[in-house]
Amino acid sequence: MADFLPLSHLTRSCRTTAEPSDAAATGSAHARPGAGSDKLARLLLRKVGQAIADFSMIADGDRIMVCVSGGKDSYALLDLLVRLQRRAPVRFEMVAVNVDQGWPGYRTDLIAAHLAGIGVPHRMVADDFASVVEANVPAGKTPCSLCSRLRRGLLYNLAVELGCHKIALGHHSDDLIETLVLNLFYSGKLASMPAVLHSDDGRNTVIRPLCYVPEQLLVEYAAEQRFPLVSCGCPACGLPDQKRQVIKSLLQQIEAQEPGVKQNMLAALRNVKVSHLLDPGVARR
User: Rounded to the nearest 5 degrees, what angle is found at the Cα of 156, between the Cα atoms of 155 and 159?
Assistant: First the structure.
């Protein structure tokens, strides 16, 4: 951990939330990287390491901003990257970032305490996305798209401010599969989430080291590590009639009837036959 940039060196032009005075004491109650069963950790590390190698996600000297929401996926992402940092053949730094979007009941104190407890430099940022959403999203519509755009803009600018070359997000293989089906069913396109995404202006690179990891493994890992899970507070989060939740439920039903279907769908994302599709632009190349 001594190679990390000290927290006191981070610039603070964004409005930030104060860390609770007992953060370190509270954080000490949470499991540190290395606690719990190593068997599952080794499996996850293999999958994450393979993804990083396949897509050249991390290079020597990188400074990575790891986005931590308080959910199982982002906690696991940070934990696994800390473990990898200790053994990786390249040297890289990390800073964890949490964004309070302004929804009531969002326990940023628990997140800050966990980050302080494991000794990771971190920034707690607060903004009022909730008011923007309430003023601009019609009744009955979900705010997910607007929230995503607001959050992306904040994170992209913050990464530049913190001198971070990469932004690490906690999307797992189920997220990629669900996005593939969502685009197929509702947008009329074949697309998922890329493992590595370069922003249009060239300032930012987003990486998804968990892209080979099934969600169920992260559920088990979060339970093993006793992460202090925090709900985002958004009233629309996880509603069963949301399109993503409908697709998630559909895929779970299919998987229950035909085990291995989701793994095959992930494999399909790595085995694309563009010549067998109907895109005229591809055919003319």
Answer: 80
Interior CA angle at 268 toward 267 and 274, to 5°? 145
Copy the structure tokens of residue 63. 């400074």
> Of 94, 159, 92, 93, which is closest to residue 125 (Cα–Cα)?
159
Q: How many C-beta atoms lie closer than 10 Å to residue 24's C-beta?
A: 13
Structure tokens at 179: 């996005």
Give one word for 55, left, alpha or beta, with left for phi > 0 and alpha for psi -120 to 50: alpha
| Position 176, amino acid | L
- pTM of the predicted protein model: 0.83
Backbone angle region of 198, left / alpha / beta, with phi > 0 → left and psi within -120 to 50 → alpha: beta
Answer whether 251's CB lies under 8 Å from 261's CB: yes
CB atoms within 10 A of CB 137: 16
Separation in Å, CA 25 to CA 64, 105, 123, 170, 240: 26, 22, 18, 26, 38
As a whole-number percent, the residues of the chain with pLDDT over 70 amount to 79
